[in-house]
Every structure is written in C-alpha cells, then in structure tokens.
From TrEMBL:
<keyword id="KW-0472">Membrane</keyword>
<feature type="transmembrane region" description="Helical">
    <location>
        <begin position="21"/>
        <end position="46"/>
    </location>
</feature>
<feature type="domain" description="FtsX extracellular">
    <location>
        <begin position="59"/>
        <end position="144"/>
    </location>
</feature>
<dbReference type="GO" id="GO:0051301">
    <property type="term" value="P:cell division"/>
</dbReference>
<keyword id="KW-0132">Cell division</keyword>
<dbReference type="InterPro" id="IPR004513">
    <property type="entry name" value="FtsX"/>
</dbReference>
<protein>
    <recommendedName>
        <fullName>Cell division protein FtsX</fullName>
    </recommendedName>
</protein>
<keyword id="KW-0131">Cell cycle</keyword>
<dbReference type="GO" id="GO:0005886">
    <property type="term" value="C:plasma membrane"/>
</dbReference>
<comment type="similarity">
    <text>Belongs to the ABC-4 integral membrane protein family. FtsX subfamily.</text>
</comment>
<dbReference type="Pfam" id="PF02687">
    <property type="entry name" value="FtsX"/>
</dbReference>
<dbReference type="InterPro" id="IPR058204">
    <property type="entry name" value="FtsX_firmicutes-type"/>
</dbReference>
<keyword id="KW-1133">Transmembrane helix</keyword>
<feature type="transmembrane region" description="Helical">
    <location>
        <begin position="171"/>
        <end position="196"/>
    </location>
</feature>
<keyword id="KW-1003">Cell membrane</keyword>
<dbReference type="InterPro" id="IPR003838">
    <property type="entry name" value="ABC3_permease_C"/>
</dbReference>
<feature type="transmembrane region" description="Helical">
    <location>
        <begin position="266"/>
        <end position="290"/>
    </location>
</feature>
Length: 296
C-alpha cells in the first residue's frame, strides 16, 4: 500500500463499515461469538495446564534410607543421589520430621511412636528437572545399594497422570486450532455477503483500470477493523469474569499446592492474543472473500 493512497483506503474502509451497518453488525457478532469461545477455551486450558504442572511438580521421588544407616553412609548416599542425571533438588527429611508430618495429618495418637519406637525412615526427597523423568530417576536411585530401603514416586499412577495431562494439552490445542479455522470460515462468509452487495462497484473499478491491490486494501482494512472491534467484546467479557472469579476460586484452592494464573500478566496476554487473532482472521477472511470478485 502506497503512503499517498493509505489515507484514502482507511477512509473508504470506515465509510463502508458505516454504510453497511447491518452487515458490519453481523460480521462483528460472528467475530465476537467465535472469539468468545476461543478465548474462554484458551483461558480454561491455560489454567488447566497450570494446575497440571502443579500436580506434576508435586510428584517427587522419595528415597527411604535403611534403618541403622550411619551418618557417613547417609551423606555418601546424598552424594550419589546428587550425581544422578536430571535431579534438580534434594531435600532431607529425618524420621522425626516424617513422624511430625504424620502426626500433623492424622492426629496426636501417632505421638506414641517416639525415639526407637518410631517405625519411619529417614527420607531423601528428589525433584526432577522434568516431571516425565521421575520414573527414570527412581530406577537409578533404587539401584544404588543396600542403604536404600525403598524408593517411591507413585509408580504406574504417576505415569498415568503424566499421560493424562499430556493428552489434555494435546486435545486442547487441537480444539483451539479448529475453533480458529471455524472463525476464519464464519468471518469470511459473513464478509463475503458484504462484498457481494458491492460486486458491481468492484467490477466498475476493475474496468476503469484499478489494480487488484488498490481494490483489495480497503476490504483488508475493513476486515481488520471488524476483527478488532469484534475481539473487544469477548476480551471485556473474559476479563470481567476472570477478575470476578479469581479470588473466589483461589479461596477454594488455598492451603493446597495448586493455584490459578494471576490476572497480571495472564489477562494482558489473553487481550493481546485475542485482539491479534481478531485482526488477523478479519484480514484473512476479507482476502479470501474478495479474491473471487477480482476475477473480472
């Protein structure tokens, strides 16, 4: 688009939007409804992904130290565990700490197990660099030697959890992509109706020598504006609902390891994403719709 004609194209786009009021309303509504579905699903899936990541990160490898292990042997075990690939952090929990945790969870009656009567083990808690590597680290830790009494990370249940979380992410991505293509289809068809009503105008412009791009630019700008305005509606709705429900939902999750994505910067990212999608698919919809009418 040449600079000297840019003003003319923008002016024509605004005039067309106002002149074709009902068609513009239909196109904006199509964008708004579709992007409301897309934005709501993206917000939901991003928070599900956050919760899934919290669940995955809560899965750790617990290495139980054999009863009677001396301090030197325990420190040697720590060194060997630190040498395992993909181990991110190591925490030590003594048998007394483990008993305190049990008493905190199940009650003071477990206080009967004190001193030598304490049946629990010293534990090294290993967190991996990637949740999917948990089983691999557990196998290496179990193979260290006799000072390791047992290794636990949840076994098949943890592996199943990782598979479910990955499936949820993949399905969500497919649905979002499908909705975006649906949005392009709906918008292009809605804009095509608008362009169809102006086909005679386009044909006259072609016959008097206007280039394809000279004709196309006002429609592309018009589609971008329709997409932008249509995106403002779902952006406002989603932002309001998320801000309204965030504190309430976080109240239910208080005391757990889980949480929702904080509104800042999450909502800023959603707003930028939906506005960008609206402008892009509005432009694409216009481009696809007008292509047929340029063949005069």
């Amino acid at each position: 688009m040449k600079i000297r004609t840019a003003g003319r194209h923008i002016k024509e786009s605004f005039k067309s939007i106002i002149r074709n009021g009902w068609m513009t309303f239909a196109a904006v509504s199509a964008v708004a409804i579709t992007l409301l579905l897309v934005g709501s699903l993206i917000a939901l899936l991003m928070n599900v992904n956050k919760l899934a990541s919290d669940v995955e990160e809560d899965v750790s490898v617990r290495v139980y130290v054999a009863t009677g292990t001396e301090e030197e042997e325990r420190e040697a075990l720590r060194s060997e565990l630190e040498g395992i690939d993909n181990v991110d952090t190591i925490e030590y929990s003594s048998r007394e700490d483990e008993l305190d945790n049990v008493m905190g969870s199940y009650g003071e009656e477990f206080g009967l197990f004190e001193g030598d009567d304490n049946p629990l083990h010293d534990v090294f808690i290993l967190n991996t660099t990637e949740p999917e590597l948990t089983s691999e680290v557990a196998e290496e830790a179990a193979a260290i030697g006799p000072v390791v009494d047992d290794v636990n990370y949840g076994g098949a249940e943890a592996d199943r959890l990782f598979e479910i979380m990955e499936t949820v992410r993949n399905i969500g991505a497919v649905i979002i992509i499908a909705l975006i293509f649906t949005a392009i289809f709906l918008i292009s068809n809605t804009i095509r109706i608008t362009i169809f009503s102006r086909r005679t105008e386009i044909e006259i412009m072609k016959l008097v020598g206007a280039t394809n791009w000279f004709i196309r630019w006002p429609f592309l700008i018009e589609g971008a504006l329709i997409g932008f305005v249509g995106a403002l509606i779902p952006v406002s709705i989603i932002s309001y609902l998320y801000l309204s429900g965030f504190d309430t939902l976080m109240g239910y999750l208080s005391g757990t390891y889980f949480g929702l994505l904080p509104p800042n910067p999450f909502l800023i990212q959603i707003v930028a994403l939906l506005l960008t999608i609206g402008v892009v698919i509005g432009s694409i919809g216009s481009s696809l719709s007008i292509r047929k009418f340029l063949k005069v």
